[in-house]
C-alpha cells in the first residue's frame, strides 16, 4: 500500500509530534490530577507511535521521488548541465510544494 504525500506527511506528524505529545501530556496531567493508569496509557501511546513509525519508515523506503535530476557533462565545453525529468506533469505541483528528485549522473566522473 502506497500513501500519498499528504497522507505520509500527516502520519509523520502524528507519529513524531501528536502521539508523543499526548503521552507526555497525560503523564504531566497525572502528576496534577492523579489520573488512572498513567504508565499503561503513556506506554500504549508509545507502542502505537512506534508501530506506526515502522509502517511509515517502510513507506519512505519505497518512495521513488517526483522524478530525476539528470546531471550531464558536455565533453565539448566541459560544462555540467542539469535537467529535471518528472514522473508526473509539472502542472500537478502546487506553488511552494517541496519535491524530491533522485540525482542521476550521466557522463560525469564521480
Task: Write a structural description.
The chain has two domains: 5-61; 67-106, no CATH class. The protein contains two helices and three strands. It has helices spanning 5-33, 38-61, and strands at residues 67-73, 80-86, 101-106. A three-stranded mixed beta sheet has the order 2-1-3, with no helix packed on it. α1 (5-33) runs antiparallel to α2. The longest helix has 29 residues, at 5-33. The radius of gyration is 22 Å and the shape is elongated.
Shape, principal axes of CA atoms: elongated
Number of domains: 2
Helical/strand content category: alpha+beta
Taking the sheet with the most strands, its summary is: 3 strands, mixed
In spatial order, strands of the major sheet run 2-1-3
Low-confidence runs (pLDDT<50, min 5 residues)? none
**Hey, roughly how much beta strand do the residues contain?**
15-25%
Termini Cα gap = 35 Å
Helix content: 40-55%
> How many runs of DSSP E, i.e. beta strands?
3
Number of DSSP helical runs: 2
Series of H and E elements: HHEEE
Computed Rg: 22 Å
The average pLDDT value, as a whole number, equals 90
Quickly describe the structure:
The chain is 48% helix and 18% strand. It has 110 residues and is α+β, with helices and mostly antiparallel strands. The chain is elongated.
Show the helix and strand layout.
Layout: H1 5-33, H2 38-61, E1 67-73, E2 80-86, E3 101-106
Parallel strand pairs: 1-3
Antiparallel strand pairs: 1-2
Helix pairs in contact: 1-2
Amino acid at each position: 500500500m502506497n500513501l500519498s504525500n499528504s497522507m505520509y506527511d500527516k502520519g509523520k506528524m502524528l507519529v513524531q509530534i501528536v502521539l508523543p505529545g499526548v503521552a507526555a501530556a497525560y503523564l504531566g496531567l497525572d502528576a496534577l490530577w492523579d489520573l488512572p493508569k498513567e504508565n499503561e496509557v503513556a506506554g500504549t501511546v508509545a507502542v502505537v507511535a512506534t508501530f506506526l513509525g515502522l509502517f511509515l519508515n517502510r513507506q519512505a523506503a519505497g518512495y521513488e521521488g517526483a522524478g530525476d535530476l539528470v546531471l550531464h557533462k558536455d565533453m565539448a565545453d566541459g560544462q555540467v548541465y542539469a535537467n529535471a525529468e518528472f514522473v508526473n506533469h509539472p502542472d500537478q505541483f502546487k506553488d511552494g510544494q517541496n519535491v524530491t528528485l533522485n540525482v542521476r549522473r550521466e557522463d560525469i566522473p564521480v
